[in-house]
Amino acid sequence: MKKILFVTSEAHPLIKTGGLADVSGSLPKALAELSQDVRIIMPNYQTIKMQNEVRYLCTLRVENRDVNILETRMPDSNVIVWLVDFAEYFIRPGNPYVDEHGNSWPDNADRFALFCRIAVEVAMNRAYLQWMPDVVHCNDWQSGLVPALLSLESNRPSSVFTIHNLAYQGLFTAESIRGLNLPGQLWNPEGLEFYNMLSFIKGGLVYADKITTVSPNYALEIQTAAYGCGLEGLLRFRKDSLIGILNGIDQDVWNPAIDPSIAKHYGQKTLKDKQHNKSELQRRFGLPEDDKVPLLGLIGRLVEQKGIDLIIDCLPEMLSMSLQFVLLGSGDKDFEQRLQNLAHVYPDKMAVAQGYDEPLAHLIEAGADIFLMPSRFEPCGLNQMYSQRYGTLPIVRNTGGLSDTVVDVLPETLANRTATGFVFNDANASSLLETVKRAVMLYSDRKAWTSVQSNAMGKDFSWLKSAEQYLALYESL
Ligand code: ADP
Ligand code: GLC
Description:
By secondary structure, the chain is an alpha/beta fold. The protein has two domains: 3-248 and 463-476, Rossmann fold, CATH 3.40.50.2000; 268-457, Rossmann fold (3-Layer(aba) Sandwich), CATH 3.40.50.2000. The protein has helices spanning 19-33, 87-90, 108-123, 145-150, 200-207, 216-221, 232-237, 274-284, 308-318, 333-345, 358-367, 383-389, 400-405, 411-415, 429-443, 446-457, 464-476; strands at residues 3-7, 37-43, 55-62, 65-73, 80-85, 135-139, 158-163, 171-172, 193-194, 197-199, 210-213, 242-244, 295-302, 324-331, 350-354, 370-373, 393-397, 422-424. Strand 4 (65-73) and strand 5 form a beta hairpin. Alpha-D-glucopyranose binds at residues 18-20, 23, 164-165, 214, 247, 378-382, 401.
């Protein structure tokens, strides 16, 4: 049995801004089911939805600050969660990284550096918790300083760093980091320095014993200039320590047979009941109730990564076809505005829900026929897997984890029953539009459509296989 300290800045259902939270909520649970002793450490934000009892454990004095460690448990798995409690940094409105207006908190470097220092104290068993991990598993830039600081310790646990998204690197100017008091030997171009800036993510990429990312394909892509965000050289240098492990999904949370947020439960054998969710979705979005018209859905952060501009560019032509489109998301203000404008022009065909709404996300997965995910890059992507499980066929671009999880509808994949969605190559509006036409055409062939739905719903995206791969990795350290 391995003792694993899982360091993350968000975990569903306590707090979530994106897929990192889904993974942090479900991978530790899957590891616990494999009889591992895994504990999560994360900041104690004001907006955490605490469900279980919280108790005070201790106070640590770090960098002249008194920081409390609290303990609770994950609601649906009993995995222990240690909360790093420092009110001045974490008790504020907004989300973990940005204020109500979407601007990064100006002291993010201080906030996450303190979080990392506390994680190191816990990892080194200096926090009076009588527990020392074998492996410290860090996730994304917010935890990047942990492997760097640990590298200076003797008798330290091994470290793993998972890249969920290389585009977010935690870069800070030299002035903003003066107060951090980082050990001088970490500050050089082979260390934490990135063109005179402090790079939190380099702390993971340079110093972790092993690096993972969330799909095999993205592990290859990030070693190239097109996807490496300036870090491709370092990643090529470390390629023997870099591995891609595909994310799983929590099949209890994303299961149309028991999902409490949808209008009517259904499964592979009761696919016709999916229809009730479509009607409910059309009602909720104020679109004409029509079971024949293909309904497209999208849920996500409205940022360039997700190819939102490609959708906006082809929407007028797309909406001239017989289809409907619903979208739930928030992000870039310009994208939000342009999507709202289009929804006003086509009120019978398109509707937008701005914001973050977990139950509505479930209803869209259940009610839509087709899910749009034309990402420019996608480390793994979860929604295309949720969609397949809900018999909602995804349209994805051939990139990252999307390529690893969706099988394009082609004559041979239809025949051998492996087709699960629609894949296109070029990141431009006309390729997307062609693929939407292809999907709509197949939709009119009910027999072929239900056959692909059934392939998609039958796929195994559970965590077990991936959790076993993580475990093998921990054991190799
Ligand atoms: P990323 O982590 O890049 O945002 P993923 O596909 O890995 O992309 O995960 C996104 C997760 O966040 C999914 O669980 C998705 O349903 C959820 N999500 C994104 N935007 C919203 C929203 N506006 N409302 C509800 N859930 C959302
Ligand atoms: C990131 C990526 C997404 C991935 C998620 C969880 O936010 O953008 O592709 O699925 O992390 O690993």
